[in-house]
From TrEMBL:
GO terms for molecular function: ATP binding; ATP hydrolysis activity. This is Putative ABC transporter ATP-binding protein YxlF. Residues 18-31 have a biased composition (Basic and acidic residues). Residues 1-38 are annotated as: Disordered. Keywords: ATP-binding, Hydrolase, Nucleotide-binding, Transport. Pfam families: ABC_tran. Transmembrane segments: none annotated. Residues 1-16 have a biased composition (Low complexity). Residues 46-276 form the ABC transporter domain. Belongs to the ABC transporter superfamily. PANTHER family: ABC TRANSPORTER (PTHR43335:SF3), ABC TRANSPORTER, ATP-BINDING PROTEIN (PTHR43335). The keyword Hydrolase applies.
Length: 352
């Protein structure tokens, strides 16, 4: 079988054609049995390279590039209409880029879509089904569509029903399921062929708090099993709890990427500081007030509270100068920005 290697597929990004995806000859079609459950290469498991998607004059995705390492969870943060779903649909081979390319396990979504699909499970933000289909039939249909058969298919069905907690609902029609159970079933559909990569578009939308907690636990367990996960949400606190890396997207542009801690430090140009000064707090406050990086100084006994404009290194320099002036700094507390604070700061000027 003439199977392209990931290194072949990782050629430089090129504009997509409007006529549709390039076809793969019958001899090149992947075997139904070859479905890797973990990353098979040495580079990133997900990679977007200068990805663009235009709808007329609208730039839904505007020059986005990022990568996700194997076994990591990448959180895609942005409001509705920011470009999250469009770029995720391109990764899932449901749409073509206007320019640029995306890669899954080293294979191009433009040139090698069939190989991408066998390495990827996609959970859309909504899904439909036939009215009277039950959960087992629904999952079995997709297992067969991915070429699973015999004991392999039955084994995957049992595992997915157990992992998603839907085994008790296996014979029930999907139409009678709660929103939370439907989301579990949709996750099961994405997992049925044991893919290396999962693309989850707003999986927690509409779920109650208990269901969201359970979903977060499942996602972390999947990452611990070696799955690489791209998950989108506008519920920022949830992504902060489960993601190794996050990307903030607005109006089709990727504005910041990194770990939550890194982005918070990068954007921490304004933080609230509380310093405990022994004996001479009033004098320390008067020393601080003229500084350009300091605002709103308040003294409360031994505590001096103020707004500080600067990064973490500049904060350390300030404390060192206080000590150098002879003030006895007993304690310092810095209020770290939440992910919501960072998001609002990063997107300021774009969101109207």
């Amino acid at each position: 079988m003439n199977t392209p290697t990931p290194s072949d597929a990782s050629a430089s990004a090129s504009p997509a054609v409007d006529e549709g995806r390039p076809s793969i000859t019958p001899d090149d079609r992947p075997s139904n049995r070859i479905i890797p459950s973990v990353h098979t290469g040495t580079g990133p498991c997900i990679e977007l390279r200068r990805l663009h998607r235009f709808f007329g004059k609208t730039k839904a995705v505007n020059d986005i590039s990022f990568s996700v390492d194997p076994g990591h969870v990448f959180g895609y943060i942005g409001p509705n209409g920011a470009g999250k779903t469009t770029s995720m649909r391109i990764l899932a081979t449901l749409d073509l880029p206007s320019y640029g390319d995306a890669f899954v396990d080293g294979f191009s979504v433009v040139n090698d879509p069939e190989y991408v699909r066998r390495r990827l499970g996609f959970m859309p933000d909504s899904f439909g089904t036939y009215r009277d289909v039950n959960c087992r039939e629904y999952l079995d249909f997709f297992a067969r569509a991915y070429g699973l058969s015999g004991d392999d298919r039955l084994r995957r069905l049992r595992w997915v029903l157990s992992f998603t907690g839907t085994e008790g609902m296996a014979e029930k029609p999907i139409r009678g399921l709660s929103k939370g159970m439907k989301q579990r079933l949709c996750l099961g559909r994405a997992l049925i062929h044991d893919p290396a990569v999962l693309i989850l578009d707003e999986p927690a939308a509409g779920l109650d708090p208990r269901a969201r907690i359970q979903l977060r636990r499942m996602i972390r367990e999947l990452a611990d099993r070696g799955k690489t996960i791209l998950i989108s949400s506008h519920i920022l606190t949830e992504l902060a709890e489960i993601c190794d890396t996050v990307g903030i997207i607005e109006q089709g542009q990727l504005l910041a990427t990194g770990s939550v801690e890194q982005i918070q430090h990068q954007q921490a140009s304004h933080r609230d500081l509380k310093i405990r000064i022994l004996q001479r707090a009033d004098q320390a406050a008067r020393w601080l007030e003229p500084l350009d990086q300091v605002d709103s100084v308040v003294v409360d006994g031994e505590l001096v509270r103020f707004e500080f404009h600067g990064d973490i290194r500049e904060q350390a320099d300030l404390v060192a100068k206080l000590c150098g002036e002879g003030f006895l700094v007993a304690e310092i507390e810095s209020h770290k920005k939440s992910l919501e604070d960072v998001f609002l700061q990063v997107t300021e000027g774009l969101v109207q």
